[in-house]
Every structure is written in structure tokens, then in C-alpha cells.
Design brief:
360 residues; alpha+beta; 6 helices; 4 strands; PX_dom_sf; Sorting nexin 7; AH/BAR_dom_sf
């Protein structure tokens, strides 16, 4: 049997894949009714929770010159209730110093999967390949609590000191940008709501005044500005805000990565210290120290390689988001400017028309 499936965002989403089964491998007693081929798969760690539902139906016979076989439609549904740590924890355990993309609430779930799939190392992780269909679970905290490991790290290499300083500054700035951006969005939303109530007032006023055309033109301009503002805010919420918040989560992930690297080094430091003062079995300590030295070297090399890749991606994402924001801002303000310029032109035309009527 051959089948393939890919994770979708919510439990109501369906996937359709087609399995090919050799006609000769069928038993006469094998059920072929679609209802009899519905399977509910449970995971061993949560026996009472049905995580994956698979329905097999619509059998079709195919006869070729080489073989005879039947294809079925296989529909899978996932109930996304598994904990973040089920998947993220395994990635962190397998790759303690790789920069694992954050998995956060709301949108961007496909983006998370794409980042894992595009990663030169994480894409080959067995847990990613096996548990992809059910890894998107309770969205929220993306980083497991990691015990502080700075205590006991005696000599952090200079390059990791610089890396840590960069992360601290980056975290401060990106968190501040995220906070202010969210506040601006909230204030703009309140402004838009006020504008939507503001325009109709001019329409009501025009019914009892001689300035009918002027008041209606003002109302029309306000309405067009409202639509432009709504479109601008939509772009802000879909383009800039998610990118900024994603890198807020990345900054948290980076701090955890540095702590895990330091924890590995702290283990080595403690073994070296014990070996120096011969606090235990020397032969055993020597063996353990050698293994930890290899572990530290692998962890450091993995982090250094992933660090450069992450920085390049971050710079590209941030540059793209801010460039798009600038273009959206220009377009938005040009629309509003053109709207009010058209109002001034209409007023000039109206005054000329009135002057002409007076002369007549």
C-alpha cells in the first residue's frame, strides 16, 4: 500500500491522497465497503485521544497491460490537541543548539512547517517526518522552560559572548517594535471606527442645509478615506505584524538555545573540575569528559552554522516586511491626498458655477 499525507491547519480540514493496492494481494474476505474501512488511529502516549482519523472510500479498478490494481481515496483528519512539547521538545532534545522556528498561536502554521522543511538539518528529523500530521497542537508558549545554565559556565567562548549580546539587544528592540506596532494598530482601528461614524453625519446635515453639494462631497471623501484606511490596516495585520511577532518568538527561542549550549558546556566544566581534583573514578571521568568534549564541539559547530543561516533569513524577512510597509504607507497617503485634492477641485468648480449664476 502506498499513501502520503501532509498536515493541515485545523481538525476540520481534509486531505485527499490516493493509495494503490495490488489486486492480487486482496483476500476474498477483505471488506471493500467504505464504511468498513474507516480507521481511528490512537497514539500510545494518549490512548484515550483519537489524534488521526482515516477514511478510505471510492474504490476504482484499473487494468493495464502490466498489472491490475485498485485505487482508493484516503481522507485523513487530525484533531490538533497534542502538546507543543510533544514535537518541539523532541526537536530541542535531538538538536539542542539548532535555532528551531517558533510555533505560535493564530496564523502562520504553514509557514512554521515550511521553515522546518527548508531547514538543512531539521527537515531530516524523524519526528518531523513521522509526526507532521499531528504536531500542530495547542498554540501558545513555544519554548519549554529550560533551567538557567549560566551558573557554572566558566569560560564561554568569545564568539558566543558576542552572539549572546546580539540576542539580548535584538530581543529588546524587536519586543519594543512589536509592542508599539500593536498599539498603533489598535489606535488606527479606533480611528477608523470613529471615521465610519463621522461621514454619515455630513449626509444627515446636508438634508437641512443649503450646502448640500459641499457636505455630500465631504462625506464621500471620508468614505473613500475609510476604505483606504481599512485596506492599509489589512496589509499591516497580514504583512508587518506577523513578521515582527514571529521574531519576538525567535528571540525567546534563541535565548533558550544559548542556555542549552551553556548547559552542555557546564556539564563538561564540572567533569573537568572533578577530574582535576580526582573527586571520582579517574578512568570513568576521563571517558565521560571525552564524550562531553565531542558533544560540546558538535553543539558549538551546529549553532555557529545555524546562526549565520538564521541571521540571513531574519535580515531578508525584516527588510521585506519594512519595504512592503513603506510601499503600503505611500500608496495609502497618496490615496487620501488625491481624495481631498479632488474635493478642493470640486469646491473650486462649484464656486465658479455659483459666480456664473450670479452674473446671469
Amino acid at each position: 500500500t502506498k499513501s502520503h499525507s501532509v498536515a493541515q491547519g485545523e481538525d476540520k480540514d481534509d486531505l485527499e491522497v490516493f493509495g494503490m493496492m495490488d489486486m492480487n494481494s486482496f483476500s476474498p474476505m477483505m471488506p471493500t465497503s467504505p464504511l468498513s474501512m474507516i480507521n481511528q488511529i490512537k497514539f500510545e502516549d494518549e490512548p484515550d485521544l483519537k489524534d488521526l482519523f482515516i477514511t478510505v472510500d471510492e474504490p476504482e479498478s484499473h487494468v493495464t497491460t502490466i498489472e491490475t490494481f485498485i485505487t482508493y481515496r484516503i481522507i485523513t483528519k487530525t484533531s490538533l490537541r497534542r502538546r507543543n512539547q510533544d514535537f518541539l521538545g523532541k526537536l530541542e532534545e535531538a538538536h539542542p543548539t539548532l535555532i528551531i522556528p517558533p510555533l505560535h498561536a493564530g496564523k502562520a502554521l504553514q509557514k512554521f512547517l515550511n521553515r522546518i522543511a527548508d531547514h538543512p538539518t531539521l527537515t531530516f528529523n524523524e519526528d518531523f517526518k513521522k509526526q507532521g500530521p499531528v504536531l500542530l497542537s495547542r498554540m501558545g508558549q513555544t519554548v519549554r522552560a529550560v533551567a538557567s545554565s549560566m551558573r557554572g559556565v566558566k569560560n564561554r567562548p568569545e564568539e558566543f559572548m558576542k552572539m549572546n549580546n546580539f540576542i539580548e539587544i535584538f530581543s529588546q528592540k524587536i519586543n519594543l517594535i512589536d509592542k508599539i506596532s500593536q498599539r498603533i494598530y489598535k489606535e488606527e482601528r479606533e480611528y477608523l471606527d470613529e471615521m465610519k461614524e463621522y461621514g454619515p453625519i455630513y449626509i444627515l446635515w446636508s438634508a437641512s442645509e443649503d450646502l448640500v453639494d459641499t457636505l455630500r462631497n465631504v462625506a464621500s471623501c471620508i468614505d473613500r478615506c475609510c476604505k483606504a484606511t481599512e485596506k492599509w490596516m489589512s496589509g499591516l495585520s497580514e504583512a508587518l505584524l506577523p513578521v515582527v511577532h514571529e521574531y519576538v518568538l525567535y528571540s525567546e527561542m534563541l535565548m533558550s538555545v544559548m542556555k542549552r549550549r551553556d548547559q552542555i558546556q557546564a556539564e563538561l566544566d564540572s567533569k573537568v573540575e572533578a577530574l582535576t581534583y580526582k573527586k571520582a573514578d579517574t578512568d570513568l571521568l576521563t571517558e565521560e569528559t571525552g564524550k562531553l568534549e565531542d558533544k560540546v564541539e558538535c553543539a558549538n559547530n551546529a549553532l555557529k552554522a545555524d546562526w549565520e543561516r538564521w541571521k540571513q533569513n531574519m535580515q531578508n524577512d525584516i527588510n521585506s516586511a519594512f519595504t512592503d510597509m513603506a510601499e503600503e504607507n505611500i500608496h495609502y497617503y497618496e490615496q487620501c491626498l488625491a481624495t481631498w485634492e479632488s474635493f478642493l477641485t470640486s469646491q473650486t468648480d462649484l464656486q465658479l458655477e455659483e459666480a456664473s449664476d450670479d452674473k446671469a
